[in-house]
Design brief:
The chain has 359 residues and is α+β, with helices and mostly antiparallel strands. The chain has ten helices and 13 strands.
Length: 359
């Protein structure tokens, strides 16, 4: 039996909860956190489907009668505050809202059914009054995995390019625990990357409430399959070495050729281009000689014969700040690709041998 008389389904300000708890409506200190406590009782204030006032999206959502909830950044199941609220017989009151400045709806007492070893910790709360979840807006329901799996590498690639260009007209907040790491070392919020990509793939407005992120989630898996790394917030962004350039040695113009090849070897760009090309044409083939390697060799493994090449940008004009678009890439067989690089080498030699004209 609870010592507090909150009404399930009723809306409360944080000050009102503090008042009932005997702290006179004070919302500083302990009450300014996401799960204050008083005399062994915990009060959870959860933002569901939207970032809180700090701008962080902690990825809370309803799953049937349960609330899937994350602790603060860096929290673990072994911290005293988490152990206190999740202990057998603990008194934990759950309040939730969908807007950053909305009042909190009282969902009832929560019982911790499952506590993960993730950081931040994730807890499944079984509410003692699950009927209150009926009032949850339909918009915060998760998209099925079958829809999330429609996001392809080219959608992820385009989302990354949009964010790198400064695009900010989206509902996603800063990341709290993990970042998407681009080949250039830029860090981006995984939910923003995936949400923008999903909006393009599904042709609907996808928000942070439509999917969850985190280790083993479809969001992380699809981003990684698109060729990007996901690292912890405090993880070091290590430089990925460029593979050997086919034992080629260059002096004049070598930096330009290395830059060109490094961009071509970008796993994200290559996977995005191949996925887009295959979705459009139904198969991979060489855009120069029309070789269909699968038909020629009789195995789908022959798709490895198709490589990705920059077709529009001359290597001498490809600055370090050049932004690659899928339209500037071309699918070529290995032979035609080597021919294109031979042409680039000849251009570099001509540049080296051409006399400088002084005006």
């Amino acid at each position: 039996m609870s010592q507090y008389n909150f009404t399930v389904g009723q809306k409360y300000k944080r000050e009102q909860v503090s008042q009932q708890a005997g702290d006179g409506g004070d919302i500083t200190g302990n009450w300014a956190t996401g799960y204050p406590h008083k005399d062994g009782v915990t009060f959870i204030f959860a933002n569901v489907g939207n970032p809180g006032q700090t701008g962080h999206d902690y990825d809370n959502y309803f799953d049937g009668p349960d609330l899937i909830w994350r602790g603060r950044t860096g929290s673990t199941r072994h911290q005293p505050s988490i152990r206190r609220m999740t202990a057998s017989g603990a008194e934990t009151h759950v309040f939730w809202r969908t807007g950053g400045r909305d009042l909190f709806t009282y969902a009832g007492l929560g019982e911790a059914l499952n506590i993960t070893d993730e950081v931040p910790v994730r807890v499944r709360w079984r509410l003692n009054s699950p009927s209150t979840v009926v009032s949850t807006p339909a918009a915060i329901q998760r998209l099925p995995a079958s829809d999330l799996n429609k996001v392809r590498p080219e959608h992820i690639f385009e989302a990354v390019q949009l964010l790198l260009s400064g695009y900010s007209d989206h509902p996603f907040a800063l990341s709290t625990d993990y970042d998407v790491l681009t080949e250039e070392g830029h860090r981006l919020p995984p939910k923003a990357v995936f949400g923008i990509a999903a909006t393009q793939a599904l042709d609907i407005e996808v928000g942070p409430y439509h999917f969850t992120a985190g280790i083993s989630s479809p969001c992380f898996r699809i981003i990684q399959e698109a060729g990007y790394r996901i690292i912890p917030k405090d993880g070091q962004a290590l430089e990925v070495p460029l593979p050997d350039l086919e034992d080629e040695s260059w002096t004049e113009g070598s930096a330009k050729l290395v830059t060109h090849k490094k961009r071509e070897r970008s796993p994200a760009a290559a996977k995005a281009k191949k996925s887009q090309f295959k979705a459009k044409h139904g198969k991979l083939f060489c855009e120069k000689c029309n070789l269909d390697p699968v038909a020629h060799f009789g195995t789908t493994q022959a798709e490895a014969c198709i490589e990705v090449h920059h077709k529009d940008v001359q290597v001498q004009h490809m600055g370090l700040d050049h932004v690659t678009t899928l339209g500037s890439l071309q699918c070529l067989c290995a032979n035609c690709h080597r021919l294109e690089h031979a042409i680039l080498r000849a251009m570099l030699r001509n540049e080296k041998d051409s006399p400088t004209v002084v005006s």
